[in-house]
Amino acid sequence: MEDLSLPKIDYAAVAPMLILFGVACVGVLFEGVLPKAARRVTQLVLALLGLVAALSVIVWQSDTRVLTAGGAVAIDGPTLFLQGAIIVLGIMALLLIGDRAMEHGGAFVAQAAITVGSEADRKQAVKEQGATEVYPLTVFAIAGMLLFVAANDLLTMFVALEVFSLPLYLLCALARRRRLLSQEAALKYFLLGAYASAFFLFGVALVYGFAGGVEFGTIHDSVTESTQSTVLLYAGLAMIAIGLLFKAAAAPFHVWTPDVYQGAPTPITGLMAACTKVAAFGGLLRVLYVGFDGVAWDYTPILGVVAVLTMLIGAVLAVTQTDIKRLLAYSSIANAGYLLVGVLALSKDGLSSTMFYLVAYGFTVIAAFGVVTLVRDADGEATHLSRWAGLGRRSPLYAGIFTFILLAFAGIPLTSGFIAKFAVFGAALDSGEAWLVVFGVVTSMLLAFPYLRVVVMMWLSEPGESTPTVSIPGGLTAAALVIGVVATLVLGVAPAPLLDLTTSAADFVR
Amino acid sequence: MRPVIPYVTAALLFGLGVYGVLRRRNAVLVLMSVELMLNAVNLILITADTTVRAALPQTGQVFALFVIVIAAAEVGVGLAIVLQLYRLRATVAVDDVPLEKVDA
């Protein structure tokens, strides 16, 4: 038997992931050894410190361009940029998750194992503090996302996909209020997610059969050189795309999105809308740009149709929604379509503008869900749109913030939404994908209608008996809101630094 | 030589899994169908391992090990969620799961 030689690992380059996986494991240990009273603060501080440490390593390593761990992990410009984006957005989501000022015990149930509606459940809803397992679970999910955008072969990508999905399934089931809805959302997300990842894996196996390896470099070479029949390649790519588009919430793989976004605890919805989207598109970019760029001519029309369908379905169905979380879910589907337009530009501009869009959208959407956590009545969050009527009179400040956020979603100038849409549409035009841009602009106009309807409702209706109050946010939520709104404004007024950063980062290593 | 039988078996297993997910109402059976799909993939990986001229030998078998571990983790999480639902409603039929109009 020959000697086994271990692959060289550049520990500094993979340190952010190691730190976060380590922090999550320590967090699980803390659950076992710390007294209940001390857990929440310790866990929150530990998770935040871990994220900040990982972010500083990424900044320190910002010039690294290396393939490491036997070619399984690629640390390059897009990886570092997207990892940094995931961590910053993850910190914001963690601030929302950690806040307990609006509701006694926070947004999470104390013991998910207690049957809904039982005597014990009523007791825990009133008295108990929320579960602290959410912090390690969140850190596991974020660490998995970091690995997902760095994965340089399909198997690592599959492992990372599961590492970030499994904690998210559990987090969805942990809402304190409306626990039935939350658990059913988790079941739906889990079953469909497992189904989609089985397709992804089948695609991996087919591509392995075609290329004889699953590294993107190997795939790239055999796409151009192989004399084999390409049936395996196309079938494999299609199935891999199904898995990734499911996570990205693109039509026709979007059906889980509204139910899950509505049922999950709102801070977790924010985490999913921002970070999962960054991770899913990071993975999609690497698969299409690094692995399968040789067959770009064949997949562009198909993914283009998917993009158009996604934009149309998101925009049209957003109009009919009566629940603010479902409205934001359909808006997130439509935004997945705009992101696909950027991806399909298949150029350096396409890559950099997609990365810019991901960051801009992430900041705005977390701030939006932050405001949703504030508007509440005795039963928890008042998410039905009719309840939001007249909110502008009750609390002009938060209605103003939400109006600004909605205008950013609609892509009004001086907000990051405008610059981001401009960038992806510009990149697509340069690559000759004008038909995508036409659909993009048309659906943007369509999508502006539901946003403006909410704005009009908030400002021009009289507040009624049932108009809920806006809670004074705790310090953590306030911090997340401020970060989100300021980022949305700054990226809209002075986007040049981030645009330069995305342009300089837009180079994959192969 | 092309090992036709394992490939066809794997394709049948995968098809069976897809059919099961789409047709079964019981959440546990849906979960089992997903497992069937994953095992079909394992069969393909191990078969492909013997025919594909890979850069490294036996990579397909190693992939199968990864898939087995992840499938186990997935079942752990999945059964936890299904068990919750069973405690709640004393049924695991997925089309009895109303996602709208529940205010508890």
Short description:
Chain A is mostly helical and about 500 residues long.
CATH topology of chain B: Helix Hairpins
Instruction: List the quaternary state of the chains.
Output: heterodimer
Q: What value does the average pLDDT of chain A take?
A: 87
Q: What is the SS-derived class of chain B?
A: mainly alpha
Percent strand of chain A? under 5%
Secondary-structure element pattern of chain B, one letter each: HHH
- Tally of individual helices of chain B: 3
Q: Give the uncertain stretches of chain B in residue-range form.
A: none
Can you put this structure into words, describing what you see?
- The complex is a heterodimer of chains A (510) and B (104).
- Chain A is built from 20 helices and 5 strands.
- With 510 residues, chain A is mainly alpha-helical.
- Chain A has one domain (15-505).
- In chain A, helix 7 (179-211) crosses helix 10 and helix 13 packs antiparallel against helix 14.
- Chain A is globular, with a radius of gyration of 22 Å.
- The relative contact order of chain A is 0.10.
- The model of chain A has no long low-confidence stretch (mean pLDDT 87).
- With 104 residues, chain B is mainly α.
- In chain B, 73% of the residues lie in helices and 0% in strands.
- Chain B is built from 3 helices and no strands.
- Chain B has helices spanning 4-23, 27-51, 59-89.
- Chain B is elongated.
- The termini of chain B are far apart.
- The chains are: A mainly alpha (510), B mainly alpha (104).
- The interface between A and B is large, with 45 and 43 residues.
- Chain B: It is a multi-pass membrane protein.
- Chain B: Its EC number is 7.1.1.-.
- Chain B: It is found in: Cell membrane; Membrane.
List key phrases describing it.
heterodimer, A: 510 residues, mainly alpha, 3-stranded antiparallel β-sheet, 5 strands, 3% strand, globular, B: 104 residues, Helix Hairpins, 73% helix, elongated, quinone (chain B), NAD (chain B), transport (chain B)
